[in-house]
Amino acid sequence: MRLTQASSKSGINPDLYDNTRCTYQRKADAKIGHGWVETISDDEVIVRMRDNLVWQESDEASFEIFGLGKNLRCMARLSAQMSAPNAEVGALCIFRILGSPRITEGQPNARLCNQDVTAIVKIKGEFITPEPVPVQDISRTGLAIFLPTPIEPGETAELDLLTDQGRVTMRATIVVYSRLMDTHGYRHGFKIAEMGRVDAVNWHKIFERK
Hints:
The protein is mainly beta.
């Protein structure tokens, strides 16, 4: 995967990242979550969290933002919380971007999740994620999931996915993982190995054009 720096001279193009999904890992406690980018500039990003985590002033987190053909990774510090989380929606937060973000080219055969797809991951009968974690970019034959610990390629996992089309269960093999910038988290690439007929129907509905 080719990396480039998003310099202040070229700037961040908000058209690529406004109203797109993101994942994050909070630095203080390594908690993982996901949300939607409301808007972004060279200096700050406004995120609607999709969880009920309580944020403190100056909390830092690493973000991966899934844009149109280009993903952006950065560290950011909370500068303001515009609304607190409640039972239905997470907090609306303003983060100050720290340092120079990294931009990665999107995978050519992948489709970014434009809905909240989450997964519970189990390997050899043990839960790797007791709580759902966000699914990142997906294709008809694979998907990427952000996990707190590295799992070696070759391991086969049982994935329990919750999508807008319903619950999907499948077996998938880890083919690659990479550590995310300035975090203890790891991005894992899975290749789908097996799923039932009903699960396959629900999975492929994700790729149908509205």
